[in-house]
Amino acid sequence: MTTLRHVPSVGAGVDRVDGPAKVTGAAAYPGDVHYPDLAHAALVRSTIAAGRVRAITTDAAEAVPGVLAVLTHANAPRVERAPDTALGAAPPPPLRDDRIIHHGQYLAVVVAETAEAANEAARLVRVDYEPAEALLDPHDPRAETLTDPARLDTARGDAATALASADVLVEATYTTPEETNNPLGPFTTVAAWDGTALTVHDSTQWPYAVRAALARAFDVPENGVQVLARHVGGGFGAGLRVWPHVVLAALAARVTGRPVRLELTRPQMFTGVGHRPSTVQRVRIGATRDGDLVGVEHESTSVTAIEDDTIEPAAAGTSNAYACPNVATRDRAVRLHLPSPGPMRAPGEAQGNFALECALDELAHELRMDPLQLRLRNHADVQQTSGLPWSSNALRDAYEQGAARFGWHRRTPDPGSMRDGRWLVGLGMAGVTFPWYQQPCRARASMDLRGTALVRSAVTDIGTGTATVMTQLAADLLGLPLARVRFDLGDTDMPMAPQAGGSGLTGALGSAVHAACRQLVEAFLDLVWDDPGSPLRGLGPADVTVAEGRIHRTGQPALGESYTDILARHGVHELTADGDSAPPRPEDIGMAPAGAFGARFVEVRVDPSLGLLRVSRVVTAVDAGRVLNAKTATSQIVGGTVGGIGMALMERTERDPGTGRVADATLGDYLVPVHADVPEMEVLFVGGPDPVNPAGTKGVGEIGLVGVAAAVANAVFHATGRRVRDLPITVEDLL
Ligand code: MOS
Predict the structure, then answer these.
(1) Fewer CB within 10 Å, N- or C-terminus of the chain?
(2) Distance CA 64, CA 713 (A)
(3) Which residue ranges does the record assign to the Aldehyde oxidase/xanthine dehydrogenase a/b hammerhead domain (predicted)?
């Protein structure tokens, strides 16, 4: 017999398993779902930010041919607010009464035979408003301030005293604007009732949360609600909360007795599925003349909605970013008449890192110290908040290898000292310490008589490559070629899974898949435990190796048999096993589970006579633990970097200060980077498997965005001597 060697698929840059289905149009997104008697819904939104609906007139809308129902607060059945999730309380339920708390709030939903009829009728709904004065300015003294509702604030040592006596003090205020997630696929919900059973196809990052919300809303059992999200056209965090339109689609289907499709328009995507809230951040950093940090204070005030407790954790991340004995972080939020915010890729981290890493650059300039040396000097060798050692930390490698690849040593320290013809050249950098996050997860693995493994869990893949990396992982754990593993997802009839978010899914799901595959191999060993015909008789999981679709005694490839032979001989069609994972408790494992770390190096070019700013080079080095797929992991970092360039130079949700209306609610007006704005980007992975989860991963979904804005702003300062503390950095800032 030839030697049996499993060629590992983990690590390789395997193409996406769902790529062909996506590029050929075979992949059905929620908007592609069809029912023979499908009806269509359209939404009517408030054109004021605060007040009441005095009257709402629907006669003209109801008279449009094909209209089945017009639901308003006056006639819609009441629904319950969704239960709290790991991300906090749900947004208020739709159509509950006549109160208006933000521009764009849904005031009616029209259901019709066609989308055209529904849209036409929606335009004919007349709303008579009783406006109230809206709070729209974060500095409005009448706005209520939330003080630490999520218990995010941190304090160690005595920051105030340390700052008062520091040799060098940097104190500055940074602002970041409201941004809108803008996944490419407009969010769509298709809802169909069959008695009290509800089936919903939804653009969500968290099918189980949608199931729980709809079961609560309609007072039906959770196991009578099936939520499907096999393909989702992106999310960037917008799909992490259960938004009112999802409930409205199910409500419309219930009232009309028809399956209903509700597809948000692009402008509705700006008001109905969350956004990155604006922040005002004050940072104070004190240091010795030698560059040792002695005190840091970081205070952020973000914006939340009138009835929402979501608070953006912008300052919190500073608590663990650097070694410093005296640190205080405070996150506040003010309530305004704006739509509910929501997570947007690296929520809080994206903005907080901008402020902290710019302030460090200002400190380095004050100290006449190289910005990279300042970071290395204050590297957090242990997790600062707990004092525990990191489960893994290759941030120093990221700095050193990233700097070498970038050519950081060529940087001359003085602002304006590097030129290329008419361009001022600036080199800037930033460090990133991303938090660890993990939620409980379950996966199920099956093997059938054809020798094909099916692994499944109710997760979604928002385009990150989750299905691909889990296929690779299962293939290695079961000793199968990739083609004999199928990973299925996006269905709440599958085992429970957490959200595709917080950069925590690969660890949680990878651990569950690991457990499920191990359990499945054990199930095979149990089957042959006293089977005299099996060379595996009496063996336990520690005694065997899997390769080429077989289980064999470790070191003795001839002493084994295939999964299919075992099943056939025992007359079993299929074996199935579940595996669970749960986040470890730091105190149990004696270390601080580490998220990813990163170092970011950016070159910009500024034409001072025109104010033109180009990002011309980006090198990113990331410690992401074990990289399951070099291609999809790199794509996450590259895609995140593009988002970071958007944050640095372009993105800003513009609100009319008088009405709160979004003034740039299209992809023509809301600027995001295009190819011409995106330079060569290099990504290096450093470090190795993290011991906290058996998959060894640390998550790459969000860190790619973090640090870009600071590195760009720092590079702009290096190029021009201008310190821009308010994002985005535009032509006006550089003229
Ligand atoms: Mo992300 S904001 O965790 O989808």
Answers:
(1) N
(2) 54
(3) 24-133
- Residue 517 inside a domain? The answer is yes
Closest CA to 640 of 698, 595, 702, 596: 702
Query: pLDDT by residue (tens digit) across 269-292?
Result: 999 999 999 999 999 999 999 999
Cα 25 from Cα 32, distance rounded (Å)? 10
CB 707 within 8 A of CB 432: yes
Measure the CA angle with vertex 579, ends 576 and 580; round to 5°. Answer: 155
Q: Is the CB of 504 under 6 A from ligand 1?
A: no
Domain annotation covers residue 204: yes
Residues 65 and 196 occupy one common structural domain: yes
Q: Which atom of ligand 1 is nearest to the CA of 236?
A: 4
Q: On the CB side of 126, how many CA atoms lie within 13 Å of its CA?
A: 6
Nearest to 487 by CA among 495, 563, 8: 495
Which backbone phi and psi does 590 adopt, to 5 degrees? 70, 20
**Tell me: the pLDDT tens digits for 424-462?**
999 999 999 999 999 999 999 999 999 999 999 999 999
- Does the predicted TM-score (pTM) go above 0.90? yes
At which of 536, 567, 583 does a domain end? 583
Burial class (CB in 10 A: 0-12, 13-18, 19+), 168: middle
Range of the domain at 545: 19-26+439-583
Q: Is 680 helix (H, G, I), strand (E, B) or coil?
A: strand
* Backbone conformation region of residue 161, classed left if phi is above 0, alpha if psi is from -120 to 50, else beta: alpha
CATH number at residue 709: 3.30.365.10
Residues 356 and 260 in one domain: no
**Proportion of the chain in helix, strand, coil states, percent, rounded to 5:** 25, 30, 45
- Do 336 and 218 fall into the same domain? no
Q: How confident is the model at residue 3 (pLDDT cuts 50, 70, 90)?
A: low
Confidence of residue 1 (pLDDT cuts 50, 70, 90): very low
Distance between CA atoms of residues 138 and 650, nearest Å: 21
Ligand 1 contact, 274 CB (< 6 A): no
Is residue 446 located within the same domain as residue 553? yes
Domain presence at residue 174: no
Q: Are residues 430 and 455 in the same domain?
A: no
- Give nearest CA residue, ligand 1 atom 4: 237
Residues 87 and 228 in one domain: yes
Place of tokens 């985005």: 728
Structural domains counted in the chain: 3
Q: Is residue 249 part of a domain?
A: yes
Give the separation between CA 87 and CA 342, rounded to whole angstroms.
Answer: 9
User: Are 449 and 309 in the same domain?
Assistant: no
Q: What CATH number corresponds to the domain at position 209? A: 3.90.1170.50
Pocket test for ligand 1, best of 702, 703, 705, 706 (most atoms within 8 A of CB): 702
Type of residue found at 419 = R
Confidence at residue 2, expressed as pLDDT on a 0 to 100 scale: 47
Question: Peptide bond before 481: cis, by omega within 30 degrees of 0?
Answer: no
